[in-house]
DNA sequence: TTGTGGTGT
């Protein structure tokens, strides 16, 4: 394909003209005191003007192909200066010499060849010991780093990107800031060359905006362009807004959204895209005529904080013009709200009432690179909606998305006459725009040899940072609670043993199982002269942001959930992270000032073996919930659904199978009535939903709804180090029937204590989890009533409760192996060996027949949340499922 | 006799 590049040239004079026109319109419309039409007119003018410029440019200019700007959606263009930056995997680099002498600290420095340096595009290495006393016999950890390299891309060199190696070690270590201020260094993360962020609003109006097409014809790229700043009265906030990198692209973004069905915006952290773009859209009139601009986030906390920020910037009350919706919390006003932030899950639920999302004019899907289950489903559905609603605009925003594959996904081949409204040049091919971020340089260090024990490597690295590096907090990424607790202990001990230099350290664990109070410790600022060391799971990678982190230690691993559709088992396994994750982790070090990231894996591994992106959640999850959601939206051909990442056919088939066995789908794989539709309405795993529906007839819906609420929160128990105390606490609530009944006892106790947090603490129960249980329970009761179920308590008749559980979970029935001395069970469905999880109250009780809620696989398959049943209930509840396997009366 | 990365409706 020909790399055809066209360019839109806009002269300063014309920009001023436009600004004048806009100001005139604004002024005249202000007289009319009609804000809505002002913005609508503004939008029209921008559009008309842009179109005329595009035409002129193509007609008059023969220079299109002389552009020296290479289009690559992954790579930000810096300040319109046409310099391309290599993606870090080609270019793992350290940009400036800061701190190197500190690190070397008199320890030997030697020139070595990197094992993978054979080819000429890789610069030679040097390595050095960071001079620490190892905890083990492993010897000191040796880190290596590459020399600085800066590249510029030139015309005709798309394939070849020359690397310019800078001077060697001695030069680097001499002048600390030698490179700071040079343009376009600092390539890996953030604030490139320190020349960023100076574009004080209109001050950047000297650059010319450019428009480029790439070979795919229609993937557009803008570099910096001047922006027409609006004249609002909120001076300081307005200034802050204008300082954000995204501000320079305001006009470009509005133009792209105007002219393209889908716009993909690649922006690093700190670019301001999430808070600014919805405001730009509003200012440009996209919320006129009662329409709403939506912006989705994967996490509740992000929704709340972004909405609060935007309402502050706009000087409006949260919940009026700017609002947000998350589960249990709708802070919007249907008459007033024009910009609405919401979780992607909420938007999916909204589709069940309004499948075309007709009240939204623009939907911005943020953090799309995370590829969460609901983001992917949402993207698939939005693509479908676009075909019915060509006027709907989508913005896909993400940090490190594979923009081209996303663009390919949204590339529609429409072969029908254009509808009205498309005649103003609306393009169905997605546009891509990159916006640079605003962070600081992060130096990356790799171990020279693979480490065999990342826990010990972690400890020695932390100790050496503490010894050799200037003040600044350390964030360590490990995999789970177990590792983290061990590391905290080891580092604390090591600090005590190593004398005065290590006194000023506060070591804190961070994972979701901690109580809120323990989590909050991590957010308190470190006392004067003390260094905070936070040992965290992935929770600090995206969900929580810690201020004050200067050093990151990355183990290269995280726990990830994988689903095996053949065995129907979800596993939680320690797995290597992706490059995208590694970059995200490193970026956590550059938030307040230049930072350093120590990777406990080799550079060779990072470059050659680490996958560039993680596996989308869609491809490693049980899809039963997702399938029923799509069915409820009327998508019959699930197997043919156009996903951003197709799940395996096995997991699709498995999901359909489960739903069929639950009586949710009929022989034609259509939702049954009423059960199928009822199950789809409930925001739960289909098996739990089925259990609730069955409880209606059995007369125990109140209890079952309570159990369902508890099953759908992570864990109601506090994780504590001394496990014995927790086990003892559990015994206070333990019921012979099993965990579900035990949960009911806990819930009753919680109510009797008047929902007291003190009571929770005393009984090793997670107070926040219980509060969530109450909320979920209320929601489920409301939905159940809407579905026409009767809310009824079975009082103390636990047999009907167990029957209701059986009605939902009959497929998970297990039988104790006769003569088994170690509590081995086999599943009825597939004769798999399983054991009762030690956290269950039925552990070591081993009733003959049990049903489990879920399987967890470690060295054995463990059943979690187990209840004992009578096998005859299985055939009662699911004759279709068990009729082919009559129970053998000869076996005990 | 053993263990719960993180989200979300």
Automatic annotation (TrEMBL):
GO molecular function: ATP binding; hydrolase activity; RNA binding; RNA helicase activity
Coiled-coil ranges from the UniProt annotation: 8-35
Reactions listed under catalytic activity: ATP + H2O = ADP + phosphate + H(+)
Stretch forming the signal peptide: none
Assigned EC number: 3.6.4.13
Residues of the Helicase C-terminal domain: 458-634
Listed Gene3D superfamilies: 1.20.120.1080, P-loop containing nucleotide triphosphate hydrolases
SMART domains reported in the protein's UniProt record: AAA, DEXDc, HA2, HELICc
Protein name: RNA helicase
Species: Mikania micrantha (bitter vine)
Superkingdom per UniProt: Eukaryota
Keyword Magnesium listed: no
Compositional bias ranges of the Gly residues kind: 191-204
């Amino acid at each position: 394909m020909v790399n055809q590049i066209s360019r839109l040239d806009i002269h300063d004079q014309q920009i001023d003209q436009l600004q004048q026109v806009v100001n005139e319109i604004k002024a005249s419309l202000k007289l009319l005191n009609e804000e809505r039409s002002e913005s609508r007119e503004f939008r029209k003018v921008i559009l008309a003007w842009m179109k005329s410029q595009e035409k002129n440019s193509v007609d008059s200019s023969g220079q299109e192909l002389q552009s020296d700007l290479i289009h690559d959606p992954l790579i930000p263009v810096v300040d319109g200066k046409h310099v391309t930056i290599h993606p870090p995997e080609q270019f793992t680099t350290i940009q400036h010499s800061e701190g190197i002498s500190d690190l070397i600290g008199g320890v030997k420095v030697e020139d070595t060849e990197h094992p993978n340096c054979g080819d000429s595009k890789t610069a030679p290495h040097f390595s050095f010991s960071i001079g620490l006393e190892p905890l083990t016999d492993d010897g000191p950890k040796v880190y290596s780093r590459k020399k600085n390299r800066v590249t510029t891309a030139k015309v005709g060199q798309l394939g070849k990107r020359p690397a310019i190696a800078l001077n060697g070690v001695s030069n680097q270590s001499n002048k600390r800031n030698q490179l700071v201020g040079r343009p376009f260094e600092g390539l890996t993360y953030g604030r490139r060359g320190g020349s960023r962020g100076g574009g004080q609003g209109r001050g950047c109006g000297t650059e010319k905006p450019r428009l480029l097409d790439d070979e795919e014809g229609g993937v557009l790229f803008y570099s910096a362009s001047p922006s027409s700043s609006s004249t609002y009265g909120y001076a300081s906030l307005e200034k802050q807004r204008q300082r954000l990198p995204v501000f320079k692209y305001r006009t470009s973004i509005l133009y792209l959204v105007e002219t393209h069905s889908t716009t993909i915006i690649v922006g690093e952290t700190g670019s301001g895209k999430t808070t600014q773009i919805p405001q730009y859209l509003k200012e440009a009139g996209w919320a006129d005529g009662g329409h709403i601009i939506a912006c989705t986030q994967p996490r509740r906390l992000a929704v709340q904080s972004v909405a609060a920020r935007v309402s502050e910037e706009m000087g409006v009350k949260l919940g009026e013009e700017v609002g947000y919706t998350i589960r249990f919390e709708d802070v919007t006003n249907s008459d007033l709200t024009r910009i609405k932030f919401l979780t992607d899950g909420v938007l999916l639920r909204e589709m069940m009432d309004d499948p075309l999302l007709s009240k939204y004019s623009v939907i911005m899907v943020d953090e799309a690179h995370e590829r969460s289950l609901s983001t992917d489903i949402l993207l698939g559905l939005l693509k479908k909606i676009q075909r019915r609603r060509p006027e709907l605009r989508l913005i896909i925003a993400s940090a490190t998305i594979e923009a081209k594959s996303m663009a390919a996904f949204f590339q529609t081949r429409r072969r029908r006459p254009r509808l009205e409204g498309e005649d103003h040049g609306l393009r169905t091919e997605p546009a891509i725009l990159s916006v640079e971020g605003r962070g600081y340089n992060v130096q990356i260090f790799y171990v020279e040899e693979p480490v065999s024990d990342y826990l010990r490597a972690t400890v020695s690295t932390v100790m050496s940072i503490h010894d050799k590096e200037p003040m600044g907090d350390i964030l360590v990424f490990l995999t789970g609670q177990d590792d983290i607790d061990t590391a905290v202990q080891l580092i604390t001990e090591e600090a005590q043993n190593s004398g005065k230099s290590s006194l000023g350290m506060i070591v804190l664990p961070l994972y979701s199982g901690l109580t809120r109070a323990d989590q909050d410790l991590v957010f308190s600022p470190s006392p004067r002269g003390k260094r905070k060391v936070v040992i965290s799971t992935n929770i600090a990678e995206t969900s929580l942001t810690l201020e004050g982190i200067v050093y990151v230690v990355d183990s290269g691993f995280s726990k990830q959930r994988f689903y095996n559709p053949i065995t129907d088992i979800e596993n939680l396994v320690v797995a290597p992270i992706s490059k995208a994750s590694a970059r995200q982790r490193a970026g956590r070090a550059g938030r307040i000032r230049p930072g350093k990231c120590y990777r406990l894996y080799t550079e060779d591994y990072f470059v050659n073996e680490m996958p560039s992106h993680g596996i989308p959640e869609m491809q490693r999850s049980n899809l039963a919930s997702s399938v029923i959601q799509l069915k409820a939206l009327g998508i019959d051909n699930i197997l043919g659904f156009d996903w951003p990442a197709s799940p395996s056919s096995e997991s699709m088939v498995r999901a359909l199978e489960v739903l069929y066995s639950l009586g949710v789908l009929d022989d034609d794989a259509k939702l049954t009535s009423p059960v199928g539709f009822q199950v789809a309405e409930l925001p739960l795993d289909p098996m739990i939903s089925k259990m609730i529906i069955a409880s209606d007839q059995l007369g125990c819906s109140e209890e079952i709804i309570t159990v369902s609420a508890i099953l759908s929160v992570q864990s109601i128990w506090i994780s504590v180090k001394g496990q014995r105390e927790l086990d003892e606490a559990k015994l206070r609530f333990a019921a012979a029937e099993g965990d579900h009944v035990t949960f009911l006892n806990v819930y009753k106790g919680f109510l009797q204590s008047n929902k007291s947090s003190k009571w929770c603490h005393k009984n090793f129960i997670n107070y926040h989890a219980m509060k969530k249980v109450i909320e979920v329970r209320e929601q489920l009761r409301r939905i159940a009533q809407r579905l026409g179920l009767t809310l009824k308590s079975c009082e103390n008749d636990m047999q009907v409760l167990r029957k209701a559980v059986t009605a939902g979970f009959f497929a998970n029935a297990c039988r104790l192996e006769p003569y088994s001395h170690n509590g081995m069970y086999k599943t009825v469905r597939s004769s798999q060996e399983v054991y009762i999880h030690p956290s269950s109250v039925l552990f070591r009780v081993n009733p003959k027949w049990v049903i489990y809620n879920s399987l967890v696989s470690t060295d054995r398959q463990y059943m979690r949340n187990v209840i004992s049943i009578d096998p005859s209930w299985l055939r009662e509840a699911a004759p279709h499922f068990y009729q082919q396997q009559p129970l053998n009366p000869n076996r005990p």
